[in-house]
Amino acid sequence: MNLTRIAEIFTGKARPGVSGTDYSQRTKRLVAVFFVVLLVMGLLQAFTPGPFRHFFVDFVLTQSLILGIAASSLIFLSAYGGMISLAQVLMYGMCGFVVGNSVTTLGSKGLKLGLNPWVGVVIGVVVTTFVGFVLGVISSRSSGLYYLMITLSFGVIGTYFFGQVTQLSGFGGVNQVRPPGYIGEPDSATNPERMFYTTLVVAVIVYLLLRYVSRTPFGLTLQGVRDDPVRMNSLGYNVAMHRVWAFTLSAFVASLAGVLYVWEWRSISPTTINLFGIIDLLVIAVIGGILMLEGAWLGAFVFVALENYVRDVLLLNNWIGEDRFRTLVGAVVLVLVLACPDGLVGLRRIRFAIPMSIVGGVVWGTAGGVVIGSGGAISGIIVGAVAGIGFAGLLNLVKEFDWANSMAGSLGKYRLKVSAPRTD
Amino acid sequence: MKLFGKKTVWLKVLTASLVMSLVAAACAAQTETADQALQIANSANSAAAAAQAAADAAAAEARSVQAGAAEMQAAIDVAQAAAILAQSTAEDNEAAVAEAQADLDAANSALADATVAAEKAQMEASAATEEAAAAQERAQAAEMEAEEAAQRAEDAEARAAEAERTAAGTQEIKLAILSDCEGAFGAFHEQDIAGVATAFAEYAGATITNRSKPTDGFTGASVAGVPINLVGIGCADDTAEAAIRETRNLMENLGADIMIGPLSGDESIAVANYAKDHLNQTFINGTAGAQDTTLTVRAPNFFRFNGDGAQWNAGLGDIAKNTLGWETAAVIGDDYSFAWTSMAGFIAEFCAAGGDVISRVFPPLNETNYSGFVEQLPDPDEVDGYFWAVGGAGLIPALKAFEDAKGPVDGSQHIGNLFWGTPGQFEQLGGRVDGAYVGGFGIAGDLKTANANRHMEIITRHFDEIPFGGNPAPASDAHGSGFFLNYHNAAWGLIQALEAVNGDLSNNHEKLRIELSQVVLDGAFGEIRLDENRQAIQDQFVQRIYTDDEGNLAIRTVAFIPAVDQTFGGTFDGDPTPSRDYPACEERDIDWIGNARTVVDGIIQ
Amino acid sequence: MTDVKLDEGAREPSGRPGLTGRASSHYRRIRTMGWRQLVPRLLLAAVLIFIAVWILFVTEVSSAQAAINEPGRFLRSILDSITNASLYFIVASGFTLIFGLMRTVQMAHGSMFLLAGYIALTFQRERLDINQGISPEQVSASNWLLPLIFAVLIVSGLGLVIQQVFLRWNAGQDLRQAIITIAISIIMADQMTANFGGVAKDITWPREIHGFIETENFRYATHRFFIIGVALGVGGLLWLLLNKTRTGMVIRAGVDDTPMVQALGINVHKVFAVSFALGSALAALGGVIGGSHASLAPSVDAEWLLHSLVVVIIGGLGSLRGAAAGSLLYGLAKSFAPAYLPASLTNYSIIATFAVLAIVLALRPYGMFGRAE
């Protein structure tokens, strides 16, 4: 693969004939630009003093990229293979545990093997990919919601496995996992942005890899399997094996996220991969857009920003205080899911959504900044933007809704015209 | 995105340099004043010293004169005695009477002479004393002057120190609190914050924002002239992941220097590990009680002013073996670090006293179907008693499953850890736990000591209400709450240390760390000091549940064990840490066994 | 998803040749099953026999001892399984009803459970004016039943509102509906912590139900029998509803082919609304009984969502029989694993519980009574 080809893929010019989505090139290019903007932002931050720097880059951006990688493995399976897998959280968690057990030495739970960090990475990725293959074989016979359920049960079993097997972890988890020196110093206060760059590079590679795979014969067959497994079977393709290999690939990608996660957090515990963790990743994929890889990072960024910045929201903080911020997280997710049927990557197709979100964010953010301070400003921007999207959705709903029919009780036209009718 | 734009960079640099130069100028000016003041103070001091010396000399003189007078008086006494002796002798020999009479007369005249002399001496002495008093007065005046001067000098010094801090960039200390507002301990969120808030209101001049809602925070706190700003209250859910996420938000986003928290076992292990990687910040545990946190992780900047789960249970094993007469016991507890630590305390002491633990059962955390786990326990006729370290959502279902399978829970056959003794929680357990002994939390709500009363006063002075579990509750309810107490002590210890270092956080909080590890708290329920792992050595109490006159469950303190340390009388050394099968059951020597002091009606006997 | 009907064709190559002519019917069955199905079944049978032998005779090393030596414990374990299975069934039947008809994965089902419990708890304590653990002697039947009815009504009403406001116009979009209910469950969980507190509390059984049956070697709680009775009643009523009433027929038809039912001029959406309210009511009933049987606290909602999911995964999505069978199997595993595993393995009992799930799914990807979509 030469550089021109990479560039083509990156900018979306090498569009394959078969695709599950009907998005314009522009959306894809926009998301590619998103990566570049992140990179530039990270570079700028490295030379900018101020308290905002560390947290935003070292945690919010880095964590978004990591969760984005994990979510992209979920979206890859869903968009190209038609399989919604909830085992991705288990996959990245498992890799985290393996790396943790391999590299820690003292003062932690687990095996404390004290291996070289890079050896730990190799073991982690190999073990996880292999387990992914096995789980892929077990689940390859189901599809649709059953696939979702089976992979969910894998995830839950994994949580309890690491919770109960105290030789490997226990409910408290593994601590003091240190990244290799190139990526993070023992004292994480020095050179924290290295972790961000590493993550960014891995994220870009994963994105390119998954896009590339979706254009290989294997990827195209996989999309065929997604659309009509029976026909693909009669054409002589091994449907089950395609699913298994797709799942194995996604496990590999998720394991990369696991390595980065455990380096970034320096610890991992079964609570990271419990039912809530599984649900969080699903929410990320869906609010980002489950049909496009790019949605993974978009959704992850929104979700992580939400969890960390939405605290003091002007007008709402009498009703929802700082300690009730999860209510706001739930409300924002609800609005986004209701207003953007195709996730944030499909935002452009909803009339007025983008301008309204900008207006909402600016107004609420400014007001919050004036009244509360910087925290209020950031919370205001997020909540205002989401409110704008919600309002746009509501406007469209009111406009497009078939009121007469609805009143008459003849149903079936309950659908926003802004979103294309869906077959699933 | 503008926030990171090029323009802002330059603006920031410009503003920063402007501020820096202003600060430097102010600092220089301040330093000069301070020097002057110091000089004045010194000279005043020396004058005062001279005056004092003169006064001393005068007083000494006066004293010597007085002594002379006393000697004279003594001579008179001797003479008188001689006269009396003579008289008595004369009683036998009348012939000698006249002679004796003459002698007596002579003595009397001598006496008169002596008296005159003595009077004269006395007059002299009183004059000297007067003189001395005058000298003393002068000396006092001088001393006062000197004190004033010293005060001025001190003020100047403080200003200088502040200027210095300003120059170093610490105009204020940013404080964060991490507590749980979700999960099994979410109900105690307001109590936790109230604990910190009352400490700052009481000892650092803070103003409580809302006397009925602690989470609204406080303002205006300052220690040694350095303002302390509450930048954020973290909201975790008793999982390690959420604790780290919130800690990072508080420390890295909101830029806190010092954090008080977290609340529960696994959280604290994760946070202590985080602390190890962030030596430029200081962490003071909220109320978490896992042993690993301080005994194994040993982060140099993580301090804990409360006992761990094992320390809290000091005295229980002794009571089980020697008061209740258990020979064997079964233990059941959640399968995680805090419950392991809590059980370790009971097992170590019970076995040390000669008991035997015949069954250990570990249901997973937050299980609510306990029938299978209760089945693992021996029946009541196969074992003398049960120790419970189940908490959270699980305790009630576990007790019910026990009742359903093995018969009624008899208080004297069961001992619980602190989850049986925390106000707000044990009331929910129902009458079945009446009569059970329960482990402590470093707290004895019914203790009648001056410090305990003072604790109550402090709470009610600063709060009217401290909500509990979503409902309003009178502030006085927090008096018996270990959650409130431990967060309060953490904040109090911090304030004491900050006072000692004048709010100096320079050089990675070096001075503060040294001071923090030397803090001694004259706490509400006994003295608290830290060991070399920065872990509290704390007095512990054993409590017992009873039904009060109105038929409600209540709790009273029954035993007191002073100064329990984390090694638990030499049992633990941090490797291995408590786990499902550690500690093993073996006889040991723990010195408080048999020496616990009983507590009757809130008075330590 | 359109890719669902692959399996029957794709999985199995044509039957093995030979042995056709004079094969007995038994033999023919084995042949048509094929080795790939036979081997797992034999293995399963072997495993089941091993477990049975283990429990009955061998378990000297487990804490509960072998069943023939300790029949009381064995009986109690069996009854515990059935009790827990009953509770799982009450909750999961609501879940499976909603799923079967509307293809909605109701992720807020656990929240409905917990909310109903809290409502009943608050109501009961208001009536008795006690705010601490209550003993059953203080509770009369009405002080338990009225809170139950109240909670069921409120929660089924809430379910109806959720369905009408959020789910109705997203019909057919499984994943989106799941995320909507997830968002609702996040909000509900947070608000319940705020309003009902984080301390575990329990609803108290009325004195009429609470009690024990005791013989020399055996003791069991009557309120546990009551739970079994309620589950049987719920199962029976649901069966009657689905099989003997017009609404039930429409529901069953809707499960099979919604567009066809609609084409027949039946207002499916009314049926959807009724089913959703009914499903929520079952969660609420389970919540009140579960709150009396165990306790109410934050995280209980997630746990019951998990129970429901596991039960329907084992039993098969959308099948009432599946919910019953799944509950029973799950209940058995949950009670027997901690008690009858060797003592050295007893701390891994939850893993063993979920191993049951894995075995079922390996053999039947669509659950015991599930059908391929």
Protein described:
The complex is a heterotrimer of chains A (424), B (605) and C (373). With 424 residues, chain A is an all-alpha fold. Chain A has 16 helices and no strands. Chain A folds into two domains: 3-301, Orthogonal Bundle (ABC transporter involved in vitamin B12 uptake, BtuC); 310-424, no CATH class. In chain A, helix 11 crosses helix 12 (294-309), helix 13 (325-339) runs parallel beside helix 15 and helix 14 (353-371) packs antiparallel against helix 15 (374-400). In chain A, 60% of the residues are buried. Chain B has 605 residues and is of the alpha/beta class. Helix content of chain B is 49%, strand content 16%. In chain B, strands 9, 10, 11, 12, 13, 14, 15, 16, 17, 18 and 19 form an eleven-stranded mixed beta sheet that branches. In chain B, strand 18 and strand 19 (603-604) form a beta hairpin. Chain B starts with 5 loop residues before the first helix and ends with a strand. Residues 1-11 and 21-35 of chain B have low confidence and may be disordered. Chain C has 14 helices and two strands. Chain C has a two-stranded antiparallel sheet with strand order 1-2. In chain C, helix 4 runs antiparallel to helix 11, helix 5 crosses helix 11 (268-293) and helix 8 (222-244) crosses helix 9. Chain C is globular and about 60 Å long. Chains A and C meet through helix 6, helix 8, helix 9, helix 11 and helix 13 of A and helix 1, helix 7, helix 12 and helix 14 of C.
Instruction: Enumerate how many helices of chain C there are, as a single number.
Output: 14
As a percent range, the share of helical residues of chain A equals 55-70%
Shape estimate of chain A: globular
Largest sheet of chain C: 2 strands, antiparallel
What is the number of independent domains of chain A? 2
CATH class of the largest domain in chain A: Mainly Alpha
Unreliable stretches covering 5 or more consecutive residues of chain C = 1-25
User: What is the CATH third-level topology name of chain C?
Assistant: ABC transporter involved in vitamin B12 uptake, BtuC
Please count the beta strands of chain A (DSSP E, at least 2 residues each): 0
Q: Averaging pLDDT over every residue of chain A, what do you get?
A: 82
Strand content of chain C: under 5%
